[in-house]
Amino acid sequence: MTTDNMEPELLVEGASELLITYPLMASIQLVCARMGRVTGSGLATNLRRHYPAPLLYLAVLILLTANIINIAADLAAMAAAKLVIGGPVQLYVALFGTASLLMPRSRRCTGAR
């Protein structure tokens, strides 16, 4: 896909958003990974140990909402396959969503090695 027909402002805006959000996302992942390695527990367990339960539930609700929005964005991006092979977007969303739900069940998890 070429960027000949895209507005230059959109390209600059997208790149600047990436330059801001990627380091923030990477730093949050790093902090969570280090906290998990040191304590041997995940983020929710550490929140539960040190903060009141309503704060834990609020954090879990925010994370759940963010993950649902992220999954929807991922499915919409995968549905952009219509640009390559044509067809209705709803069909691709349904196909990729179904495949994403079925794939983890097709392999047996053996745990960490």
Describe this structure in words.
The structure is a single chain. The chain is an all-alpha fold. The protein has 2 domains: 7-50; 53-113. Helices cover 78% and strands 0% of the residues. The protein has 5 helices and no strands. It starts with 7 loop residues before the first helix and ends in a 7-residue tail after the last helix. The mean pLDDT is 78.
User: Radius of gyration over alpha carbons?
Assistant: 19 Å
Instruction: Bin the helical content.
Output: over 70%
- Which oligomerization state do the chains in this entry correspond to? single chain
Largest sheet: none
Residue runs with pLDDT of under 50 for 5 or more positions = none
Q: Rough shape?
A: extended
Number of domains: 2
Q: Give the averaged pLDDT, no decimals.
A: 78
Count of DSSP H/I helices:
5
* SSE series: HHHHH
Beta-strand content estimate: under 5%
> How many β-strand runs?
0
Helix-strand category = mainly alpha
Distance between the termini: 40 Å
Features:
2 domains, mainly alpha, extended, 113 residues, single chain
